[in-house]
Structures are given as structure tokens and as C-alpha cells.
Amino acid sequence: MKNIYMIGIGLIGGSFAIDIKKNNPDVVIHGISRKDETLNKALELNLIDKKATLDDIENADLVIVSIPVDATVKLLPTILDKISEDGLVIDAGSTKEAICKVVEHHPKRRNFLACHPIAGTENSGPTAAISGLYVGKTNIICEVEKTTFKLQEKALKLFMDIGMRIRYMDPVSHDKHIAYVSHLSHISSFMLGKTVIDKAKNERDIFDMAGSGFASTVRLAKSSPAMWTPIFKQNKENVIETLEEYINNLQQFKELMQKDNFSEIFNEMENTNHIKQILNGIK
Ligand code: NAP
């Protein structure tokens, strides 16, 4: 692999670029982005070697698409139109059904691998890119059988070299499950942040009184709305279902409080402590 094109060089694309370059110092990483200032920043941070445009993609051995999921749905067919017969296109989007659907009948579908790296932080843009983001993290691959075997092998080697584990899933199950473990957590964090900001109008009070529990629970509320709005739009049905169950649980908790049923509140929390065993080992 000689020429790698990163479309989107924020947290996800930039972090891929750093570790791929570390493992393969001879590859040339080309950056493509909407804004020239983003490309300049990526050059300054050594995330990319050169600036490029979509027309250059015909020269790519590998293209990694790490832009918001609505932009991926729009752009992916064009990227596949331009990729060479042996080129591989990988996406990193947090939803998978709409992305897989838009290229399902594309003549170069076999050059595409649909992925979702389960790794990230609340930060965004090129300055958020970090080395080692993917070490020990899972990469969910969807519809692997639709990608040429030779290109699957290339992609697997690349992911294993940067320390990732692989899981296979169909796009519909991916979107259903990820709504619970990722999308709902973000909504919960955003709305917790909103509730506190609305109440404590004095920011100094929030700063003085918020403990580390609040800071860690509300961490995800710092995430990029530009990235998250299209995710909620694409996964609307599943996200609404998770929200209904979550609101139901909040409602029940409130009713237990109103009825002074603190023994049941104790039980609810004790049962949920089981999350410790489930999450054991996740950093
Ligand atoms: P990010 O740090 O905000 O970077 C997004 C990049 O996309 C930027 O380089 C931006 O460049 C470009 N971009 C933004 N809007 C665009 C548009 N409409 N058309 C074309 N390019 C656009 O976001 P990220 O966290 O790396 O996320 C990238 C992808 O990875 C998303 O699909 C997301 O769902 C997925 N993902 C994110 C996480 C996470 O925790 N953050 C985890 C797994 C997967 P300009 O400045 O030039 O606009």
C-alpha cells in the first residue's frame, strides 16, 4: 500500500493517519477536506503528507472516509466511481444501514468495506487526533462478504497492526444495538448538561459545586453537534425506541421517590451495579 487518501482528518481520520504512518513510514498520506484551513492544520500536525482533492482518488490504494454520516451517504457513490479496480474504500461512520444501502447496487461495491471503530473521545477536528486511539478497541465490520476477499485481507491486516479487534455484524443489528450503548448515552449526557445549565444560570456555581461524578457523566455533552445530528437522523427509529425505555425508567424512579419507596430504589441501584461486571476491562 503506497497511497492512502483520508477524506476527513478529524479525530477518527487523523488518529488512523497517525498510527498507519507509524506502522508504514513509506506510505504517503493524502488529506481531503472541505475547508483548506483544516488541511493546513492537518499538515502542520503531520497528520497528512499532502493535500489532495476527490479527483486524485483514482491513484489511491486505500481511501478512509471519516466525515459525518450524512456526508458519507452523499459522497460514497462518487468515491466508488473514482476508485481503481484494486483500490479499497473504508468508512468509519457510526451508523451502518444507510451507508451500506446507498452503495448496495454500486458496480464497485466489492471495493468497499463498511466499518465502525468503537473508539473515540468527546473532542473533534485535526487537533483531537491521537496516537493509540484504536489499541485494544473493537472495529465492527458489516456485510464483510460483499467485499473482495483480497481487499478484506488488506483491511484486516491494517486494523490488526494498529491493535484493533474485529467483530462482524449486519448493518441493521449494528444500528439497533449501537443506539443503546452509544447514541442513548450521548443524548443522556447532553440533556443532563442542559438540565444543569438551565437551572444553575451562574456558571461559577456549576464550576464550584460539580464533582468528578458530574464531570464524567456529562463528558459526552462536549461532543460535536455537527457529527451527532446526522447520526440521530439516520438512526431515528432505534434512538426513539431507546429513549422511550429510558424515559420510562426515569419516570418509574421518580414515582418510587414520590411514594417514599426507598427500599425499591435501593434494589434498582443494586441490580444495576451488575454493570461493573459487564464493563470490567473497558477503559
Ligand atoms: P470530526 O473530528 O468532527 O472530523 C470530521 C471531519 O469531516 C473534519 O475533517 C471535517 O472537515 C469533515 N467534514 C465535516 N462535515 C463535512 C461535510 N458535510 N462534508 C465533508 N466533510 C465534512 O469527526 P470524527 O469524530 O472524526 O467523526 C468522523 C466519522 O467517524 C463520523 O462519521 C462519525 O460518525 C464516526 N465516528 C466517530 C466517533 C467518535 O467518537 N467521534 C467514533 C467512531 C466513529 P472540515 O473542517 O474541512 O469541514
UniProtKB/TrEMBL annotation:
Gene3D superfamilies: 6-phosphogluconate dehydrogenase C-terminal like domain, NAD(P)-binding Rossmann-like Domain. One of its GO terms (biological process) is tyrosine biosynthetic process. Pfam families: PDH_C (PF20463), PDH_N (PF02153). This is Prephenate dehydrogenase. InterPro entries: 6-PGluconate_DH-like_C_sf, NAD(P)-bd_dom_sf, PDH_C, PDH_N, Preph/Arog_dehydrog, Prephen_DH. One of its GO terms (molecular function) is NAD+ binding. Residues 2-283 form the Prephenate/arogenate dehydrogenase domain. It comes from Polaribacter atrinae. Keywords: Oxidoreductase.
